[in-house]
Design brief:
2 domains; about 500 residues
Length: about 500
Amino acid sequence: MLRFTQYGLLMIAMLLPNFSDAAVSTSVIEHAKHLNLTNHIIGYLSLVLFACAYLLAMLEEVTELRKSKPMVFAASIIWVLIAGVYANGGMSEQAGLAFRTSLEGYAELFLFILVSMTYLNAMEDRGVFETLRVWLLSKNFSYRQLFWITGFQAFFISSACNNLTTALLMGSVIMAMGKGSPRFVTLSCINVVVAANAGGSFSPFGDITTLLVWQKGVVPFMDFFSLLIPAIVNFVVPATIMHFLIPKERPAAVMEAQAMRRGGFVIIGLFALTIITATCFENFLSLPPAAGMMLGLTYLKFFSYYLQKTSADTVSYRNPASTLQGLDLSEPLQGTKIDHFGPMKWMNTPQILVISDADEGQTFDVFDKVANLEWDTLLFFYGVMVAVGGLSFIGYLEITSLQLYGNMDPTIANILVGIASAFVDNGTIMLAVLTMSPDISQGQWLLVTLTSGVGGSMLAVGSAAGVGLMGQAKGIYTFTSHLKWTPVIALGYFASIAVHFLINGRYF
């Protein structure tokens, strides 16, 4: 089945309600006496530690070393080095305040992602995504129709789910339908990666970049949707060019019966209600969206209680003489399942545990969904945020901000940020930009949200969606096959930027 989180998704998700106070904010740097360690051996060593940890995280598939291990280690050592220097100067309080501010920001991010991932795991458990997959497989679509259907579904699903979840869902359909056409699989996987990244860039909760920007407060909730048309252009331009190389054949339809399990539709509704709750907390109550998400988690917990209490998973032990009288045990039993056959401690006769097929497996425990979260990803983001906070406190992000946004046109700077996101995780890139806190217009904030969100599409390793699909379609969708289409994807990248300036000029 699907793994809902890997590398960044939910690098979903993945938000800092007051990011000016997270990851060692500029307010801390401005109002607390601090040391400039950018030319100190501690500063250089911190940069090396962060770079090495990030490199190991990117090579996780090769080294089989979980990405959280080097990143949390590097973050911890960076702050040990910083705290040591400040302690020697009698300034331990300043270093402690900066670290606690980073930790507070991560705590809000952690709670938001925890709730989002729990809901996604719950929907997987209820067969929501499997039902969608089977529905597509049951239709007699042509390869070209399936190319566009999976593309548009990836675009809109990723506006609510993380891009990795979306890509793997569509990838399973593509692999099932394209067994006889490797070209279709390759091009459709590229299309899904582009569509999933583009779809998350216009929704406040569709991607880590938009979540971070929303929580920072530089862009109001509704203004994110002004990026819808540029995002569509980013997806449609390369898809239109690839369309003509898709085979015209029509694959054989696959007929499967797949019913969504009890409570599936209710959980979808509760997830939507949770997102609305988080939005209202931020817009009307000035409370962190994480607080609203935690309230939304209680919706699922109460519904879990309801499912448990109303479950028809009743267990009954019956005497085989009465239960199986007249039945041929060599034939499958209709309507029952023999789960246990043996003597019970309190009875001298053998008993049979009978469970109804219709109700088997309908129990639901929300804490199981919490336990099944991708904890490696959550700890990875702890390492990234705390490490970036340390580099900011040292003074490196202040220098970078000056070079990037002080000596360069913000439009050029934001375009370069998007290109950089093809090499470095977009969540980390946006985290750095927000920590720099450049003085730019809302239009420029929307631009950097767009570019950092879709820039990762230019390389297969530029986003969690691409990395996930390379693992799912090994040998068919590869780094090289994606790289061949990078110029076409880049065309959509620059076209979306042009459309943003054309239709959203009022924000500049």
